[in-house]
Amino acid sequence: MENQQNRSTPDELDEETLFIVSQTFKALSEPTRIRILHLLAEQEYSVNQIAEKLSLLQSTVSHQLRFLKNLRLVKYRREGTTFYYSHDDEHVMNVLEQTIDHARHT
Fold first, then answer.
1. Distance (Å) of CA 31 to CA 4, 9, 15, 26
2. How far apart are CA 48 and CA 72, in angstroms?
3. Domains defined for the chain, CATH in brackets
4. pLDDT tens digits, residue range 27-81?
5. Which pTM was predicted?
6. Distances from the Cα of 103 to the Cαs of 69, 74, 97, in angstroms?
7. What is the rounded (10 degree) CA torsion for 6, 16, 21, 51?
8. How far is Cα of residue 9 from the mean position of the Cα atoms in its chain?
């Protein structure tokens, strides 16, 4: 007979889901990452283009992109020696844009 304590109801969140949700909000809690994701909502950009558009150091952009890539919030493609980044999760981008809209209307 299955242990009742190990079964989760639809209203409960399992540990993996909780971890992913908390890490996603952690990613969205840092202003530089928000700026990068907001920029990538428009189109893909190289690291250098992101750094230039946002007036950031290339090393800062690379560090933040690595964090976002590990969470699968951004993806990249390689063209020669250049990496072009774009967003990789429409759900998170929708949450981000809705939150930005909310902030602008308060």
1. 43, 36, 27, 11
2. 21
3. 15-104 (1.10.10.10)
4. 999 999 999 999 999 999 999 999 999 999 999 999 999 999 999 999 999 999 9
5. 0.84
6. 26, 23, 10
7. 180
8. 28
